[in-house]
Amino acid sequence: MAKLILITHQKGGVGKSTLVFNLAQNISGNAKVAILDMDLQGSLSQLREYISSIDILPYRESIQNIPDLDYDFIFIDTPPYLSNHLSELINIADLILIPTKAGILDLFAIRSTIDLIKQENRLAETMIVLNIIKANTTLTLDILIEIEEYDIKIANTHISDLVAFTRSVLVGGVTSDKNAQKQLDELTKELLNHLL
After folding, report:
1. For 132, which DSSP code?
2. What is the DSSP letter of 59?
3. CA 24 from chain center: how many Å?
4. Which of 39, 34, 92 is nearest to 67 (CA)?
5. What is the mean pLDDT, run by run of 10 residues, along the chain of 196 residues?
6. Ramachandran bin of 59, using left for φ above 0, alpha for ψ from -120 to 50, beta for the remaining angles
7. How many domains is the chain built from?
8. What is the CATH number of the domain that holds 148?
9. Is 66 helix (H, G, I), strand (E, B) or coil?
10. What is the distance between the alpha carbons of residues 134 and 26, in angstroms, rounded to a whole number?
11. What sign does the dihedral 89-125-151-21 (CA atoms) show?
12. Domain limits at 174?
């Protein structure tokens, strides 16, 4: 049975799709991995003809059979708005990742996502990931202090605002940038430790 990793946040621009791609790519060398693109924009679905290491599945109307698909891990990319399927996805996910930037508006926006997860009693399966983090700023620490009030696990690994991550979708990953690869490896370990 596939392990389902849901990546969600009710705000656009927090790097959900790029994080989904990089985590899936990072695990794909040792496991059978798929990405389910639930975002109607279909950004990741457009990569299907260029990526061979990951199966990219387009949006599906029925999500009940997702855990039974023949994969070790399925990453689910969600749209930046409340969809009819989000509660259902939260309930079937083995891990829910909430990527967020270290910004004031991102901090305000994360509350609606957390409230939805709380309604479904899935906070224990949830992890916040600070993503697209600017170097040398005290704002990251300020935001960390604020999100600690939600009593949700916060990933120890922060993903920096590196060109390697932005470019990764075009070049098939971040392996050419040691700093980006190290961050991705550390976040992947945290994710796997939570799941296995």
Report:
1. S
2. P
3. 9
4. 92
5. 91 88 94 88 77 81 72 90 80 95 84 93 96 83 85 94 90 89 96 91
6. beta
7. 1
8. 3.40.50.300
9. helix
10. 23
11. negative
12. 3-195
What sign for the dihedral angle of Cα 18, 179, 101, 23? positive
Among 124, 194, 138, 135, CA closest to 163: 135
Half-sphere exposure of 137 (CA within 13 A, CB side): 14
Contact 77, 7 (CB under 8 A): yes
Length of the chain (residues): 196
Angstrom CA distances, 180 to 17, 42, 48, 86, 191, stand at 16, 25, 24, 30, 16
The kind and range of the H/E element at 97 are strand 95-100
Cβ density class 8-33: b for 16+ within 10 Å, e for less? bbbbeebbbbbbbbbbbbbbbeeeeb
Q: How far apart are CA 181 and CA 165, in angstroms?
A: 9
